[in-house]
Amino acid sequence: RRWNMILPQLVTPYAKLMSATSNGRHPVPTFCSSCMKTNCNGPSGRKLKVTCVYTKYLEEIYLDVCKCCPTSLQLLEWGLFPSAPVRPMLAVDLDQLDLVSMLFMVGAPNVMNWAETLTSCLARKGYVLGGQDVLCHRYGWALQYYQVMIDMVSQTVNNMIESSRK
């Protein structure tokens, strides 16, 4: 249910990000994801640690927790997609999710093998994720809901085209 509430909020920011980066060809610009609502007290003072997965490295970032600016939106503005709609512990680079989505369109989808391969490659560089199958499960969730969001973006564009025809 939480994904159903969060994903529609990500469609427009994702489209803006793709426009600003020429569909990922340029670096992600720096956005300000701080809350702009007047009735919000701003960040709660709590920080959320998120491990970010890139092809060549892992990075830990800290996000401000605010009810008005979901962490999933903050991560999207950084070019990342969360593994959970609320309080994600892991986020994956959008370019990597796009690549894996395309790979799985032409070959048998196997998130477990992809995650194990990525974990091994990162471990060779000295990056280690704690826990068994941490990357596999969370990566799988990020990939699944990233693909759902991409479908929502396509449907939104199709609806806009259809409404302009009328």
From TrEMBL:
One Pfam family matching this protein: CxC2
CxC2-like cysteine cluster KDZ transposase-associated domain boundaries: 37-120
The protein's name: CxC2-like cysteine cluster KDZ transposase-associated domain-containing protein
Organism (species): Hydnum rufescens UP504
Organism classification: Eukaryota, Fungi, Dikarya, Basidiomycota, Agaricomycotina
